Amino acid sequence: MPLTAFAREATIRVVVDGKPETLDVVFDDRNYGGRGQPYFLCGTCSRKVQHLYLRLRDERLACRRCAALTYASQCMLRRGLHRARDIRRKLGASEELLAPLPRQHMAAAKYDRLVGQLVAAEAVIAAQLHDMVMRVRRRLEHDRHRDRNSNRARTAR
Ligand SMILES: [Zn+2]
User: Fold this and answer.
1) The pLDDT of residue 7 is above 50
2) How many A from CA of 72 to the centre of ligand 1?
3) Rounded Cα gap, residues 137 and 42, in angstroms
């Protein structure tokens, strides 16, 4: 019996909160005999991980890094969105992000202060959204390089 096992792949179907998910599982060939250590493939970054976590944004399963990053950004973003919506309510404006503001119907000083706060809050939200997009893009780029290198190492072995 050969000592090196092949990395095998499997697909598992699970239901999370009523939503079906397909999880990819790979078996590491590092262990001799048996079927090797099973790993999940993170659906976001394709890393091999032993645990998956529920990501709040879309209630999908992801590795801790992907789930946590999103979770932190989500909290910040949610706080910013709440703040912008509160200010918009005070101004009597539509709660929709970046929607036009109504004519001034309060003391000028108060109006100016609220509009200033709103502009700042919405600028922060825009910057956060931009950061999130850039971070995901960088991660995808990074993983593409890493996968290419690890494939090369595997074939060289
Ligand atoms: Zn991940």
Assistant:
1) no
2) 14
3) 16
